[in-house]
C-alpha cells in the first residue's frame, strides 16, 4: 500500500492528481491538500468523473511547519509531492524531516523577497536527509526535471563527453488572452524579469534580462525566436555532466507577452519589495498576480503545442556528435485527458513519474538528489507511457 500526499491544488496539482489516479496500482491511496479546500474538491470531483477514482482532500497551510508535521504524522504517507509554490519548499522539507517522510518538488526554493533561483538553501539539507535515511528529490517537472533526465540519458547512451548543452523551451500555444502566464504568475514573472545567466568555461556569465536571443527550429513548431534566461537546472547540471564547456537555457516569448511584461516592469508592477499604499503594505507583483488569469483557467480553448528539449553536442568514440532530445505536447489533447493546458501537463506528468520511481525504489538514494544523478532509463520508459513521448534526432555537427 503506497499512500502519497500531494500538496498544492493549482494547475500542476490537478495534473499530478489525475496522473497518480491513472497509476492507482502504484499510488493506492491519494490525498490532495492545499490552502484552499474548494480547489482540492474541484480536482477530487474531476478525478472521480474522469478516472472513477476516489481521493481524499484536506486543508493545509504548508508554511506552518508544526501543523504540517503533525498532519504528516497522523496521515503517514510514504511520500510528499510538493506542487505548491517554491516558497513552501523549505517548510515542507522541515516537516518531512520531522515526520520521517520522503520529499519531492518541481521547483527550487526561493525567498519571497529575492528572486535568486539557487539550490543553496535546499543543498543545506543534504546531511540531515542522509542521516535520517530519507530522500529529497529536486525538480521533478519538465524543466527542471525531464530536461535533466534527457541530459543523463545522453550521457549514458550517446556520449563519452558532453561539451555543449542548449535547453530550449517553446510554447507555441495560443490561449486567446492579451496577457497571461502559463504557470503561477508571480513565479513566472520573477523568472523572466531577472538578469540572464549561463555557464561557460567554468564560470557564470551574466546578461541583462532578455538581452540575448536566437532562432531555433523547434520540432513540430518550426522557427521561433528564443531568449536566454537563467534557469535552475543549469546549477546542478554543471556539477554532473562530464566534460561540459557551456550550458544555456532558452525560452520563446511572443511579441505581445514581451510588450506587456516590459510595460509592467517599467511601471514597477513586477517589483517584489513592499510599497506603501495609503498606509497598507503592498507587494506590486503579488497584487498583479490577483489581476492576471489563473493559469488553470487557460486550459479550455488553448490551442497549439509545446516543444521542449535539449540540444546536446559532444564526443562519442573520438568523433563529434550532436543530438536533439525533445517532447512535443498538444494543449487540446491535455485538456481532453485531464482538463489542463500543456504547461501544467508537462510538469505534472514528470512529477508523478518521479514519485513512481521513488515508491518503486527504482530511484533510491538518500539525501538531496537531482534528477540527472538517477538512472534515466526507467523514468523515460514511464514518461512515454504516461503521455509524454520523447524523441532523439541526430543533428549535423557544425
Ligand atoms: P498555482 O499557483 O496554480 O498553484 C499553487 C498551489 O499551491 C495553489 O493551489 C495554492 O493554494 C497552493 N499553495 C500556495 N501556498 C500554499 C501554502 N502555504 N500551503 C498550501 N498550499 C499552498 O501554481 P502551478 O500549479 O502553476 O505551479 C505549481 C509549482 O510547479 C510551482 O512551484 C511552479 O514553480 C512549479 N512549476 C514547475 C515547472 C517545471 O517544469 N519544473 C513548470 C511549471 C510550474 P491557493 O489556491 O490557496 O493559492
UniProtKB/TrEMBL annotation:
<feature type="domain" description="Saccharopine dehydrogenase NADP binding">
    <location>
        <begin position="4"/>
        <end position="137"/>
    </location>
</feature>
<dbReference type="InterPro" id="IPR036291">
    <property type="entry name" value="NAD(P)-bd_dom_sf"/>
</dbReference>
<dbReference type="Pfam" id="PF03435">
    <property type="entry name" value="Sacchrp_dh_NADP"/>
</dbReference>
<protein>
    <submittedName>
        <fullName>Carboxynorspermidine dehydrogenase</fullName>
    </submittedName>
</protein>
<dbReference type="InterPro" id="IPR032095">
    <property type="entry name" value="Sacchrp_dh-like_C"/>
</dbReference>
<feature type="domain" description="Saccharopine dehydrogenase-like C-terminal">
    <location>
        <begin position="141"/>
        <end position="388"/>
    </location>
</feature>
<dbReference type="InterPro" id="IPR005097">
    <property type="entry name" value="Sacchrp_dh_NADP-bd"/>
</dbReference>
<dbReference type="Pfam" id="PF16653">
    <property type="entry name" value="Sacchrp_dh_C"/>
</dbReference>
